[in-house]
Amino acid sequence: MRVFKTPHELKDCVGEELGATDWLEIDQARINTFAEATGDHQWIHVDVEKAKEGPFGAPIAHGYLTASLANLFLPQLMEVQGTSMGVNYGCDKIRFPSPVPVGSKIRGTGSITTVEETKDGGIQAKVTIVIQIENNDRPACIIETISRFYAA
User: Fold this and answer.
1) Is the dihedral of CA 16, 17, 19, 25 positive or negative?
2) What would the pLDDT profile of 43-94 be if each residue is shown by its tens digit?
3) Using CA atoms, how far apart are residues 148 and 77, in angstroms rounded to an integer?
4) What angle (nearest 5°) sits at the alpha carbon of residue 90, between those of residues 111 and 64?
5) Does an H or E element contain 71, and which?
6) Measured distance CA(122)–CA(4) in Å, rounded
7) Which of 63, 70, 73, 141 is the most exposed place for a label (fewest CB within 10 A)?
8) What is the dihedral of CA 110, 113, 115, 118, to 10 degrees?
């Protein structure tokens, strides 16, 4: 994990690689819980028997489940100290190059793409997170996250 003592330290780190998180196994319970939370009960995610006969040979995680895990991975990649608050401002671009079959392990790697000051005195950082699948050359998700940090 990369630790920044203040939000302003981010300015000097554009292009910096942030390393990798721990691996996280995507099990059927997590997929089912996400389906319940979002109302997306498509059979490729939640019907285990039908999904075995489907195009992926097993249930797959929802793309938005995979993308939402950027919120889990980002604090494992970097910490910004000296803040009164940090705000998830959104995302610019999300792509899903490869499905995540149930039982797969994924992790995030990240790099700081841009850093700029905001009109309200914050520091806005775009971090590109690549969510990798263990033993797969293609990533599950590439997501450009945008966070705002306000000094204490």
Assistant:
1) positive
2) 999 999 999 999 999 999 999 999 999 999 999 999 999 999 999 999 999 9
3) 16
4) 85
5) helix 70-77
6) 15
7) 63
8) -100
Residues 78, 63: Cα–Cα separation, whole Å: 24
Give the model's confidence band at 128: pLDDT under 50 very low, under 70 low, under 90 confident, else very high.
Answer: very high
CATH superfamily of 2-151: Hotdog Thioesterase (3.10.129.10)
Question: What pLDDT shows up at residue 84?
Answer: 96
Return phi, psi of residue 4, to 5°.
-110, 130
Characterize the bridge pairing of strands 83-95 and 141-151. antiparallel
Amino acid identity of 31? I
Q: Look at the pTM and tell me if it is higher than 0.85.
A: yes
Structure tokens at 102: 């149930």
CA triple 47-63-85, angle to 5 deg: 130
